[in-house]
Amino acid sequence: MSNAPHILVIDDEPQIQRAIRTILTEKGFKVTTASRGEEGLTLAATNEPDLIILDLGLPDMDGVEVCTRLREWSQCPIIILSVRDSERDKVAALDKGADDYLTKPFGIEELLARVRVGLRHSASRQGTQSKVIQAGSLMIDLAWHSVKRGDEDIKLTATEYKLLAYLAANHGRVLTHQSILTNVWDPADANHTEYLRVYMRQLRKKLEVDPERPQFIITEPGIGYRFIANE
Amino acid sequence: MRSSTFISNTSKYLLAFGFIALVTGFLFTLRDALDTTLVALLYLIPLGLITAYWGLGPGITSALATFLTFNYFFIKPYYNFAVHRPTDVVILVVFLIVAIVISQLVGRMQASLAAATAREREATQLYELSTALAGLQDGHTIAEILAKQIQDVSRGEAVELNITGGQPFVFRLPETSPLNRPPEWVVLIQVARGVLGEIRFWRAAPALTSSEKRLLQTFASQGALALERARLAQAESRARVLEESDRLKSVILSSVSHELRTPLSTIKAAASSLRSNDVHWDSAARPELIAAIDDEADHLNMLVGNLLDMSRIESGVLKPKREWNILPEIIGSVLARMKHLAEEHCIEVDVPESLPLMPVDYVQIEQVFTNLMSNSVKYAPEKSVIRVQAFVEGDTAHVIVSNQGPQVPQEHLERIFDKFFRLTDADRVTGTGLGLSICKGIIEAHGGRLWAENMHNGLAFNFTLPLVWEGISSPILPMDTETE
């Protein structure tokens, strides 16, 4: 099992550590645990894990701080764990470079899905990004700038396409309002969430079967959006 | 009274003498036609008028002056002060006595009238002050009104209220920089428990009269009473809040322990029976027990979330993080999340596309819809319709979530939003009894209103949300319409 992906779990609660370790080991991952921020940073440097699961509430330092310090030298995907109602912390950590988040309590499918997406994106950063993304009957070709549902072409405006392309290229990952606005519009527009809301609604009307119950572009309340593609 | 002080004392005497001279001149032209006693009588008229208008001093002085002019011009021999006839001596003496007595009587009456007017004015000012101060709960407003009234009444150059104790502050009128000399008059704002501050008053001229000082002193004590009352009221409301939160805590504890134990019992029972090998690996009960654990864990999570929300609303830290949002998007994500809960019901959404962007906290409004929907799902019969409608009314949005569930007795329509209020037995329906009061807290924090009303076939929750935020009713967006 030497090729098994190595996951570092930084969480101070022994029960959570135990549960995540049991589940992930069972699924064939190699798991290391740390219960403090400093310890986590040291282990991240020495063990070079493939993915880090980081709790935001650590006894010795702020999880957002751990995230910032990790990002100074590591591109390793980071999934943050936190409780409900701390949207502000989650967004802060995501904007500081965390890749995704999980709200406690979480289901095991969610955890595994986030881990898979995290590992896939770290692989694609190393050069093997797929240019065609499929979601249901939807096909987005990032190389040809074309969007199709079945055989039917979907006409998008320039901004709508840019928005969809950014979401699709990061499929499975949560993208914060700020990161979408910065990448699709302009860093100066980072606070204009209303742009995002309006364009997202238009985009959903063109893409989704039922725009009132979207399947491809999922709203993450208070955080941002997530594009769900076929695995 | 203020106008009369403009006429200085000297000019009052000069006016009095002028008047006497005028009357003397007039009587002099008629001297031959008039009897001496008649002249004496006629002289009494100006004397009375002088005392009435210009006071006792000019009156008495005029009486003496008149006595001399009467003697000099009208009693033979003319043009000297000698008197020959004994009757003239009597006339002169009587005239002098009558003149002085009249002057004094009129003067005293005048003075007591002036005093009465002054007292009445003081009483009016005091009444105005106490009316203005009545019911005020805020120290700053009290200080402001007190300072304004003092300025209105005394026209000083500046007045400064230096309130100590509690949260000390200084209120100054006019609000420019303070005068760089010590105040002419300082009054302590004092109550039985001690000094609450002081009033500093600047007016170089005219110097404060003793009655003005007395009035300022009275104002200070009125202010002291008002400040003291405000402080007591604050202390009392703090005590009430503490008492209420204490009561709430004990209610929460008892409700929570019951509510938390129910799902915990299920989880414990299911988990322990799965562990004890009583349930066979291939038994049909196995997936059911596992599903029960999963569902009840979600339920527990929701309970804890509700408690957290409620404590936030109670402590007033629930500040909406407003952003321009699209209502149908919020409703859509609620419906997507509640898919499995609402399988037994028919959900209809009737929200026009033309609805403008709304300045709301996405997460909180989502919570409102979730709670209202889950309440409807809980009480409305299976296969019935739950409808979500929204429309614009002036500069507010009106949202209705209606169901075909049982009606609520008219007298309980308000109370269903109270914490822990339940129409049915707690055992029949699960929940914290907090869902609706959380909704109310959130809607009110947004500046809207939430209420319930009975429909002919069910119950409708109504709420309003303002569409205007920071003076803007809807942002203008840069749109592109061309397709690639």
Model description:
Chain A has helices at about 15-25, 35-45, 65-70, 85-95, 110-125, 160-170, 175-185, 195-205, and strands at about 5-10, 30-35, 50-55, 80-85, 100-105, 130-135, 140, 145-150, 150-155, 175, 215-220, 225. In chain A, a hairpin with a 4-residue loop joins strand 7 and strand 8 (about 145-150). Chain A has 8 helices and 12 strands. Chain A has 2 domains: about 5-125, 3-Layer(aba) Sandwich (Rossmann fold), CATH 3.40.50.2300; about 130-225, Winged helix-like DNA-binding domain superfamily/Winged helix DNA-binding domain (Arc Repressor Mutant, subunit A, Orthogonal Bundle), CATH 1.10.10.10. Chain A is of the alpha/beta class. Helices cover about 40% and strands about 20% of the residues of chain A. The mean pLDDT of chain A is about 90. Chain B is of the alpha+beta class. Chain B has 4 domains: about 1-125, no CATH class; about 135-230, GAF domain (Beta-Lactamase), CATH 3.30.450; about 240-315, Signal transduction histidine kinase, dimerisation/phosphotransfer (DHp) domain (Helix Hairpins), CATH 1.10.287.130; about 325-465, Histidine kinase-like ATPase, C-terminal domain (Heat Shock Protein 90, 2-Layer Sandwich). Chain B is about 55% helix and about 15% strand. Chain B contains 11 helices and 11 strands. Chain B has a 5-stranded mixed beta sheet with strand order 6-8-9-11-10. Chain B has a 4-stranded antiparallel beta sheet with strand order 2-1-4-3. Chain B has a two-stranded antiparallel sheet with strand order 5-7. In chain B, helix 2 (about 10-30) packs antiparallel against helix 3 (about 35-55) and helix 3 (about 35-55) packs antiparallel against helix 4 (about 55-75). The interface of A and B includes residues 84, 107, 198, 219 and 222 of A.
